[in-house]
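Researcher: Here's a chain I'd like modeled. Treat it as a single chain, no partners, no ligands.
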Amino acid sequence: MHMHSLQPPSSAQRPGASPNRLTLSVQRSFWRLLALRIQGSPSPHTRNRPAAPGGPEGLVPPARKTSCSAQTFLDCARGPGAPVGRGQRLRQASAQTSRGPTMKSVQKQWLEVVGAYQYVLTFLFLGPFFSLLIFFLLFTSFWWVSVLYLVWLCLDWDTPKQGGRRFEWIRNLAMWRHVRDYYPVKLVKTAELPPDRNYVLSVHPHGIMCVGAFCNFSTDVTGFSKKFPGIQTSMTGLGVLFHLPVYREYLMSYGLRPVSRQSLDFILSQPQRGQAVIIMVGGAQESLYAVPGKHCLILRNRKGFVRLALRHGASLVPVYSFGENDIFKFKAFATNSWQYLCQITFKRIMGFSPCIFWGQGLFSANSWGLLPFARPITTVVGRPIPVPQRLDPTEEEVDHYHMLFMEALEQLFEDHKESCGVPASTHLTFI
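Model: Modeled as a single isolated chain. C-alpha cells:
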C-alpha cells in the first residue's frame, strides 16, 4: 500500500474524482458529531469553545438558537450517491430550521413526561398508598410512627376547614413548569378582577383529573398572580380527600380546601378582600361525561355555588377549560345501562365516580397507559357577574343569577371555541 493513498485528496485531483473511503469516513463522523452536538446540550468541556469551521462545501453552521434533528444532518452526510448534494441538503435543513420553532431537547421532553406522569400517579395512588402504609406500620416495629401521625391527625382534623396550610414555594416548583409545557396549559384573561371584592369561580368541565384547573389556580406557573394581582385563589375538592393521611397535607400545601359550607364560608368571610374560591361545580358526576370532543356540563340543578355567592356578595365568574376532556380516551356508558347505574351508586357511597379511561404508554405512543395525551388545555376566565349580598336568598334570586351565569358561560364558550380548536358547529350541553 502506498502512503499517498492515506492522504486526503488534493486540489490537483481531477474534478470528477471521488474521495477515498477514509476521507468519507472522517466526513461522516464529523457531521454525525455535529448533528449530535446540535440536537443535545453542549458538554462542560466544549460549552465555551468557538464554533467549528464549516463542512466540505465551506458552510458554517448558522449561529442561531434554533436546532434541527440529528436525522437531517445524518442524511446530509451520506456522501456521494445521494440524490441531493450534501451542501444543498444542509442549506434546505437550515432554511427549515430558521422558519420553525425551537425544538425541545431530549432532557426537556423527558422532564415534561415525568411531570405529567407524576401528576396522574399522585392523583390516583398517593392517598390510598399512604393510608395502607400507615395501617401496615401499625404491625411492625415502626408502629410508633403511625401512632404519632394518627394523634397529629386528630389534633389537626379541622385545619382544612379553617384556612389550611399553604406554601408558595411548593406552588412554584419547577416541576409544574414542565407539566404546563407538556400539554401545554394556558390561562386566558378576558376581564379584570378588582381585588376589592371576593369571587366564586365556577370551572368547567371537571374532566378526569382537573389538570387545567390545578395548573392555573393551585400553582402559579401560568402567571395567575401577574394577570390578576391581589387575588388569592383557593381551589376546593371533595371533603373525603382531606381525611386521607399525608395526602391531606399534600393538598393543603397547594391551597386546596374541602368543598363544604363551613370551609367556603370561612374563606369568603376573611376581612381581606380579593379571595377567590375555585369550585368544580360539575363534580365527580361530570367526569362521567369527559368524552373527547364532547362538552356536556352538569349544571342545570347545581345551584349551591350561587347561594354561596349571594350569602357573601361575591361575584360569579364563569371559567371554561378547553381541551380538558381531550387528554384521555374515555369509555362512556349509556344512562340506562347497568354499568352507569353502578357508577352512580358507587359515587353516592364514596363521593367519586369510577371511570374507565386510558392514555398512552410511558415509552411508546402506540401502547395503552396512564400518560395523558399532549393536547393543549386553554383555561379562559370570563367576565365577573356582580351579585348582591343576601344572607337568606330566595329561590327566585337564586334562579335568576343561576340563569345569568349559564348564559355567561355559554357566551364565553361561543366566543373562544374556534380559537381553541373546537368546531364552530359544537355547542355546550347542560344536563
